[in-house]
């Protein structure tokens, strides 16, 4: 069988299994998640050393015993996140709107009606996959998009795009960001675009460092440049868990006039907000990511 055909068959098979998984009631999936937690944390020990290293940077005042408690809560969340993500594939608009709610969305709608485009700054915190359902809360006459980094697995990448685009949000690969924004700006479209902005730049692209979790950490600055270049509004998406299976996100203005800020200040403000969010409930941040790989001591 040709390689292309084999990949297509494998994708269809995995997608079918994903759909079957998504049809299982969430309360049952949470029981499965509890079982997976034991496997992932105690048997496999997935990235436990990275998690503890990151937590020690973030909380130098805490003992290893205290950090282990946070770590265990994080792994429970990580397993929940996998199964919650699957539900996007099955839930109706009405169902997801009961589980993922948004605060202050009317402020964004007012900007849309005023023909103002918006950059949404997000971190890998809480259930960022469900954030794609924000399109259900916003005016329909917009170009809604989210920037993503292509995954190494073609199958996982296609499944991710299928999930995130279900409710009408366009997925834009990171390397196409500027072209996408420019095209919509040129024809006068109003856009609301989400950026997972706490990703690590490549070592050779590490141009600017900020104090994040007590470490001088390289950060991406592209979203700030785009926001200021095109005169977009800048909002932070502050996520919190209400209870298991229920998340809430609030749109918080980062600055009333981003273009007036000096270089990198908008990025710094984003990280100040993200840090406060993380310290509020640290178990919901993605600690498995080697975020401090290229720090300056």
Concise overview:
The chain contains ten helices and nine strands. The strands form two sheets. Strands 1-9-8-2-5-3-4 form a seven-stranded mixed β-sheet. Strands 6-7 form a two-stranded antiparallel sheet. The mean pLDDT is 92.
The H-and-E topology, N to C, reads as HHHHHEHEEHEHEEEHEEH
Strand order of the largest sheet: 1-9-8-2-5-3-4
**Helical residue percent band:** 40-55%
> What would you report as the Rg, rounded to the nearest angstrom?
19 Å
The low-confidence parts are none
Structure annotation, total helices: 10
Largest sheet: 7 strands, mixed
Percent in strands: 15-25%
The total strand number stands at 9
> What is the typical, i.e. mean, pLDDT?
92
Structurally, the number of domains stands at: 1
- Category from helices, strands and their pairing: alpha/beta
**What's the oligomerization state?**
single chain
Shape, principal axes of CA atoms: globular
N/C terminus separation: 52 Å
Descriptive overview:
The protein is of the alpha/beta class and 297 residues long. The protein has one domain. It is built from ten helices and nine strands. The strands form two sheets. The chain has a seven-stranded mixed beta sheet with strand order 1-9-8-2-5-3-4. α2 crosses α4 and α3 crosses α4. The longest helix has 24 residues. The chain is globular and about 50 Å long. The model has no long low-confidence stretch (mean pLDDT 92).
